[in-house]
Amino acid sequence: MDVTDKLRAEVEAREGDLVALTQELIRMPTLNPPGALYRDICDYLDRRLLKAGFETQLIRAEGAIGDSNTYPRWNIVARREGKCAGECVHFNSHIDVVEAGHGWTVDPFGGALKDGRVYGRGACDMKGGLAASIIAAEVFIDLCPDYAGAIEISGTADEESGGFGGVAYLAEQGFYKRVDHVIIPEPLNKDRICLGHRGVWWAEIETKGEIAHGSMPFLGDCAVRHMGAVMQEMETSLFPALALKRTDMPVVPEGAKQSTLNINSVHGGEPEQDVSYSGLPAPCVPDRCRMVIDRRFLIEEDIGDVEQEMRDVLESVRAERPGFDYDIRELHRVLPTMTERDAPVVGAVAGAIGQVFDREADYVVSPGTYDQKHIDRIGRLKNCIAYGPGILDLAHKPDEYVGVEDMVQSAQVMVLALHELLE
What we know:
alpha/beta
């Protein structure tokens, strides 16, 4: 049996440990928002990784978006040096999960094992991937103790809300200057390599009106009706134009190969009442209406053109609608990114996928962003991919799960990639 066969066999032998680790991670409800139990899960990972010979750092992203004394943004970075100098492979996983929501048939934070699946919020997105990367690293260290270079494992905050208290903060502090290869175990199916993601532009549009008594709306100016005109213009001109924009990026699913726009929220009139109030609202013509938009764009598009398209919609409405006035402000922007297929980390993971599954890897691009954006733009490291167990469609859904076999096989891919990059 050669060393790669031994590595795969040892990962399989540690299936029970892999499952137990995933369950323990799920049982810590690291909900974001607000950012709960970040220190608890970092302490847990700290104890685990110290036993494997890693040197660890717990880093609070003080001053980052979301950081507070009530909900501090804690991260862990663990590093294990090899016997001699060489390159560094870094596994990055986010520790936060979204709210459980409704519709679960199992305890969302119970980590139940049923029919070869571990259930719970964050099971596939992405605590199963975090556990798989830890098992892969531990197996590699035990069987190939004389490796060159270094292995890093990080658990980072706030990916679900932009990653500014996590990977972005670490990149700003220079942590990725010592790294050569990054693998992010996001759930994009076990035989896929995710090379990058589309871009995102979030903005808030506000239409303006004039308040008046609701029984005499002709004495005021309804901002909600103005927003309705904006939405109608979007339906008439913008949405059809976006549907015609196509990309050569291998984005999945198929519908995301075009430009898209989601109307995230609309609110007009009086502020929503406190839940303790059960009466009727006052009869007023709304003088403000706000809409938040989520525009996803392609690597072939320029961010300036993306913004201008929205302004053209608003100006078109202004030209046709007396009294129409608006404000628009940017909330968030991320440019598209895509690692080249000939990057070293891509080749190593693709070769490992070929060994484990006896077929070629599939190359995809994510419809939404993840922490690769910060590693690329702030960390200035292009040699980065997402690869991990789990089915993307299950993320944020009720009864989220990760398959045990998927985790084992993904950990085998990870350990073979480590062997390729460091041996």
